[in-house]
Hints:
This protein has helices at 5-28, 35-47, 55-68, 75-93, 103-118, 125-137, 139-143, 147-158, 165-179, 221-230, 260-273, 284-290, and strands spanning 209-213, 234-236, 245-248, 280-283. The chain has twelve helices and four strands.
Amino acid sequence: xxINPAFNYKRNRDKLFANLISIIDGVLSxxxxxxxxxxxxxxxxSDSEVIxxxxxxxxxxxxxxRVLEDGVITAxxxxxxxxxxxxxxxxxMDMPNVDLYSKESDINLLNGLCKGIVADKDLSIDExxxxxxxxxxxxxxxxxxxxxxxxxxxxxxxxxxxIDQNESDLLYKALVDFxxxxxxxxxxxxxSCQLPCDDIDSLDLYGASFCLTxxxxxxxxxxxxxxxxxxxxxxxxxVTQSTDYLVIGGLSSRDWRYSTHGRKIEKAIDDRDSxxxxxxxxxxxxxxxxxxxx
Length: 294
């Protein structure tokens, strides 16, 4: 089936606008704006070519570039950037013909929020409380993939009224896994969503049934499928009740992250949680550990 390029463009544009709206929410959720958050926004904008010609985005880039020009950010300049972020956010939300009210846009907004929260490579109580509030307001997301896992995790770590470092680290990792942002490796976007993955101590390929989703570092899915089949496993096009493993590719694309890719993951989670199957969700890097050397 051929997809209209104009449809893809609009979907990607709307996805980036939704991301940006909530990235701004995330970085400002603790009422602070750090140097690392400003750098993150700058880098993310430079990677977001689809919306680079939007006048509001251009204004934001120009303001930040001007502030960063001398290498020093004064308190007044920091406040100026914060106000510009809020102004740009409001302007984008008022733009006509931008999807901000569908299920897909909800996921994109959550994805942006997670990006913004982890942009300073730290989690504050204010940020955790804001994430809790945001998810609580969104009934659809908190009951379904991918928001359900984050919602349950936030509620669990807040249950006793004390958030220790281990709990904070656990939530931070979940936000990184979901958002595809790993600032420790310099990646601001583009990693595949790994949030619902199972802990797997061993993986026996022989006789096991696999389903693949996403883009793979190893190459086309046909290449990965052949590797699995050569090791004695089988590969199906969709998740069924007899699927043993759903493998998420290590690369993502803004074209598909929450389309077929997300639906396969959601199907696997639903089947697993309802007891219909014992499918395990894993990632390409785990699969690679158990593939025989070529």
